Amino acid sequence: MSALAPSGPAWVTVRTHRRTLWWALGLTVLAVALLVAVRLWSTHLADEFAGSGCPIRLSDGTCSDNTWFIASSEWTYSQLMAKGSAVIALLPFLVAAFVAGPVVGREMESGTYRMLWTQSVSPVRWFAVKLAVPAAMALAGSTVLIGAYRWAWSTGPGHGGPGMEWYDIDVYTAIGPVGIAATVLAVPVGALIGLLVRRTVSAMVSGMFTLGVLLYVPANFRGNFWTTRTVTGSLADGYPPYDGMVLGDGALTSSGAQVSDPMCVDDKACLTAHHIVGYYRTSQPASHFWQLQLVETGILLALAVIAAALVLRIVKRTTA
User: Fold this and answer.
1) Residue 195 contacts by C-beta under 8 Å, 6 or more apart in sequence?
2) Is 30 domain-assigned?
3) Which of 56, 100, 140, 291 gives 20 to 30 Å between its CA and that of 280?
4) Same domain, 99 and 140
């Protein structure tokens, strides 16, 4: 047997779930191939249109067919990329369901864990090595998928378009380490739920729900993970332009206070009555992307460590 081949608990896990693992590998390769194909297709269309000399947004009537074609192609590209980001956002939940149900919950429900834990390897070591297989697959698969998606997103014609901004919830997960950390977190969370619920189907549902809660909380506060930027505008200029992840906006009073916009528009009497002298907009600019990603990644990995520690503690107490 090759020195690189899995042995002991890892071999048993690979052998037991080999069909699922092969499917996961095949789908990952297919997804990467599709991302590359979509990206190359969009590049070809953009280059071809650029060489036609036709305007992209306006037409004098002689280029209407070409203009319509490139616009519809951009829309198709954006739709495909949006679906791709949604699939990547779903990946951690699939991993959590797989680990909670088939990997852990099924053994707990059938009672086969009692026999497995009486082998020469200690139960804690057995369980740790057993979880290393889905953890390695989750880490490798999510890294490859997110790397391919980020390449296709950052260089494609739909970059920065509606629904494709870096801060859009699914895109944000699909273009940085947050998506990888979420997938890694799914493994110990799924194992923990599988140990506690001990029913295959119930554990799968509970695992996805628990992971959803753990991911929702930091995602809901990610705009506060780094220093925000506030830009102001005068009454004449109006609101400052949108810049990145907008967290809030409103009116400025003569005392410098930030208040809700009374919607006076050009009504000078209304502006005077409310002491409005300008407007503000607070946001996380694109330059803060990596800081926000790394802080949230650290939070998710810390949760993964805590969940893994709880899993090993429960296994140790169960076999004591």
Assistant:
1) 104, 108, 311, 314, 315, 318
2) no
3) 291
4) yes
Contact present, 7 and 130 (Cβ < 8 Å) = no
Contact 84, 42 (CB under 8 A): no
Q: Alpha helix locations (H) across the chain?
A: 8-16, 18-50, 64-98, 106-110, 112-116, 123-155, 169-174, 177-197, 200-221, 268-273, 289-318
The rounded distance, in Å, linking the Cα atoms of 39 and 161 is 15
User: Does some domain include residue 13?
Assistant: no
DSSP state of 101: I
- 295 and 276 belong to one structural domain: no
Q: What is the pLDDT of residues 289-317, one digit of tens each?
A: 999 999 999 999 999 999 999 999 998 88
Do 178 and 246 reside in the same domain of the chain?
Answer: no
- pTM of the entire predicted model: 0.84
- Report pLDDT digits (tens) over 167-220: 998 999 999 999 999 999 999 999 999 999 989 999 999 999 999 999 999 999
Residue type at 286 in one-letter notation: A
Element of type H or E holding 230: strand 229-234
Query: Can you say how many angstroms the Cα of residue 217 is from the centroid of all Cα atoms in its chain?
Result: 14
**Residues 256, 115 share a domain:** no
- Asked whether residue 257 falls in the same domain as residue 306, the answer is no
Give me the amino acid identity at 92: P
> Could you give the CA distance from residue 207 to residue 188 in angstroms, rounded to a whole number?
10
179 and 263 co-located in one domain: no
Residue 241: DSSP 8-state: P
